[in-house]
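User: structure tokens for this one?
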Amino acid sequence: IVVIRPGESIPVDGVVTEGLGYVDQAAITGESIPVEKRAGDPVISATINKNGTFRFQASKVGEDTTLSQIIRLVDEAGNSKAPIARLADKVSGIFVPVVIGIAILTAVIWLFAGQTFEFALSNAISVLVISCPCALGLATPVAIMVGTGKAAELGILIKSAESLENLHNVDTIVLDKTGTITSGRPAVTDIVLLDSTLSEQTFLEEAAAAESGSEHPLAQAVTERARQDGLRVPKAEDFEALAGRGVRAVVRGSSYLAGNAAFMEENGLLQGGAVPRQAEAEVRRLAEEGKTPLLFARDGALVGIIAVADTIRETSRAAIRRFSEMGLHVVMLTGDNRITAEAIRKELGIEKAVSDVLPTEKEAKIRSLQQEGHKVAMVGDGINDAPALTRADIGIAIGAGTDIAIESADVVLMKDSLEDVATAIELSRAVVRNIHMNLFWAFFYNVLGIPLAAGALYPAFQLRLSPMIGSAAMSLSSVCVVANALRLRFFRRKAAPQSEALEESKKNPAEPDTQTKTGEEPAEQKGMVSMKKILTVDGMMCAHCQMHVQKALAAVDGVQEAAVDLEKKQATVTLTKEVPDQVLMEAVKEAGYTPVSCSRE
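Assistant:
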């Protein structure tokens, strides 16, 4: 029997025997909202108890736990990947002996034609020199090197040349939901007033006060929204948390109840009358949209509903639109429930969504797509995505994800933007086009140069190519191939048109209402202007350190984007609102690094 308290990680798989808790299973199942666990419910290793205390009987330990099975799947999938066959290497293996044969044949023919040994040998040497496969050997690696460097400049870390080449073959993108398409953090999406005498500001203030004593993530989403809106939340008295149902509290002299529909029904607040009927209709609507409705009652009467959901990332809609324009099939895999998955699928226009899947089932789904002949790229961020990331033809990890996901992936995105997936594929296509162009010119040069070096024009025009001129021509061909590869440095990511960005901000329910406490629009909505700050950070030694600092800064509320320059020891953050320097520096310090200074750009 194991006792689990708030904040503790569950060490092994088991079944709850006593108590009540709310377990964050996002790392395994992808569900962003903690799941209630009562007696008889199963618990999974590597998940975290957010609230409540319970006991459970261990059922699987050691190699039999869910986490161990995931790690084993990662190893098996990694060992099954076949190495890519290099076109240039194959061609070189045939080309070199053929050229040697042509050189020998050239010498023999000229000797039989009555020319001197010196003449025959000179032509044979010219053939060998001009056909030296330097350009052929440079065609692929130089383009790969420039492409990989350009990707790093754009915040995309590609672990191998094979990954960069394979990206261009991808025809299906499989996306994890939590932390990839969505932010992975519950936030308020809707506020519905059921009492016309109550303003939205007053309702949110009192709702936040009622929830302020709760540790539940849904309650914290409500209090966070009030803080973001700059509201003055009154103090709650006589607070009482009712496990699995809701809370009671006294706010500004009024008795408040806050919780789910079942809790309100227990208290007779959803029976008869226009307001209860309206509340039930709103609860159904919000649930169908994949949101979790919290009902609030004051002095025995329903006054409002606040809906909470894992909000969609700002860049997800534009990224999925780009995938469609590129001719890619998009599939969403999630351990979340069907209603939530279907709501997000419809909102973003995703072709197919598969819900309620475990990590092993994600890996099996990837394998199934591959057996159908698809080249699959999997995008994820959690432990639960690691087997699928390894099994996919290309695994792409979000930089803010877990270490095991990053280790399992072929490509790591330093920014939490799905648009970088489209950019990586477009860059790969550009690199492969460049390689094909390099190979074409290398072969074209040899097709023209070898007959000339062999003396094909000598009988008719007395023209022959000396070894010295042949070596110069060979060098020139290599220069041309390198210069062509360097054109990749001018690759630019495609930016979403401003009109699309504005349309996305209007559609995205993750955005808070535009009215603040004073009735003005937030600063980030006035002309969509953002500000930047630069932090100098000591203690960063490698790309892993770079990733940790970026992840810590990106998690700060108000930070739209964080980019870290390892050489300059600087981090640049793009803000959607004013964030104190001390908050940013504290985030760096908590990540284990030393913030030296913080200033505006």
